[in-house]
Input
Amino acid sequence: MGLVTYKQLAEHNNSGSCWIAVGGTVYDVTQFIHTHPGGAKIILKEAGKDATSAFEAVHSVELLPRFDETVKPVGTLDKSSERLDSNDSSTAEADAAALRRAGMPSLGSVLNSFDFEAIARQTMKPEAWAYYSSGAEDEITLRENHAAFHRIALKPRVLVNVSHIDTSTTFLKQTRVSLPVYITACALGKLGHPDGETVLTRAAGARNVVQMMPTLASCSLDDMLNARVDSQDTWFQLYVNADRNVTRDVVLKAEARGCKGLFVTVDAPQLGRREKDMRLKYQEDISDIIVKTGGDEEGESSTSTGQKKVNRAMGAARAISSFIDPSLSWKDIEWLQTVTRMPIVLKGVQTGADAVQAAKLGLAGVVVSNHGGRQLDTCRSGIEILPEVVADLKRAGLHGKMEIYVDGGFRRGSDVFKAIALGATGVGIGRPSLYAMSTFGQEGVERLLDIFREELEMVMGLMGCTKISDITEDMVDASHLSTRVSLVRDMLHQTVYEPLQPPQFNRS
Ligand code: FMN
Output
């Protein structure tokens, strides 16, 4: 392959002859744009340019040659050749990003997980922020997920020697972790950071916590797995593809490459209506990209190949939802048990009855979760469902037969403590890890995990617990957990209370 100058690249900037450069290689995608089920527009926007950053915002570069035989490499981009202004669509975006980050508070000023969110809101690309932060419809469940923790009171024990506190525990009977916290699966990591989910992998490795790797990551599974440090255990989150052979292949690959748990997402037979996301122009472009690769839920999938016509006017999430296999049922879970020896955990269980059914099948666990409030609005928070799951498993004589994980709205060490007290083995952290990654990269995610550890240690100390197994149900009062209405507003307190402030920007 010869060298292609920026000028030569720019000459192929239309549907009659369309070249784009990605990762230093120039591709002729003229034929491909016509077979692109999402339409030619998204590619033509980058025609004749170095589209690396636009492409990498969603994909792993190594995916491109695999898309289609109509994607033809024509040469290597001659980066020493004269650049034309229009050659690189990333320049304007880089300028805008630099402006957003001007005067950004330092990592040292971040005291809690909310601070990452406050900084992310101002520094992230607005479309990326909308995608990460959005919840379904009126976002009642999104807010309830955290609010529910306020209805659980702590009942500390005193005069316990707490000079040494150990927050470590064991997940799925095999993985010793430093914290009862894991980084849960979230799609489209490259929207927040150019290195995408590998940032989370590295931070998880550095802090000895587990990362659940998403099927729909922007990075390939290999990229993520290659970013592990020695002896780092990871889990794989699965969206079951309509083509079960695709699913079998990806499950076998995850197992062969050492993943220690298969988390099957069961709360997304179709996607929730995320209106912040829908309102932004971004949705159309992202859905186009995703549809091209046959992605079946919240991002692109490197493994699926389905192509469908979708209603893009409904926004990214809804457009993508047409790829979700709504026929997924308990029978498929039994089939998965024949495919893999990895422990299988259902992610997205919301009733005690379904948890009992999972235990009867002999599964390794459930994640009590409402998908971060992104699916069914006005459903209950994970923490509220947890006691029902424990009670129903006890009634069925199945308590202790499988592990119970929970996610949604966990922002404080005390939230983690409450979940452990109510019967969880571990807690998934979603958005805070995305925000920490998007603002401060790996260092930010490590700091986030440190904050969770420091807060949990403090709460354990004040509660009279020196190890995770000391945390018991009688240490919390959850009697009002299901009382979702607070009848009395403490007006005086509200009036005198001075709200906490996130770190301030210094833009003078
Ligand atoms: N869950 C999945 O099972 N698969 C996904 O691909 C997926 N993508 C997500 C993308 C984003 C941007 C967010 C915020 C969540 C996603 N989730 C996905 C749900 C998370 O795994 C988790 O259930 C949720 O984020 C926990 O709530 P939290 O964000 O309040 O911590």
Q: What stands out?
A: Residues 281-317 have pLDDT under 50 and may be disordered.
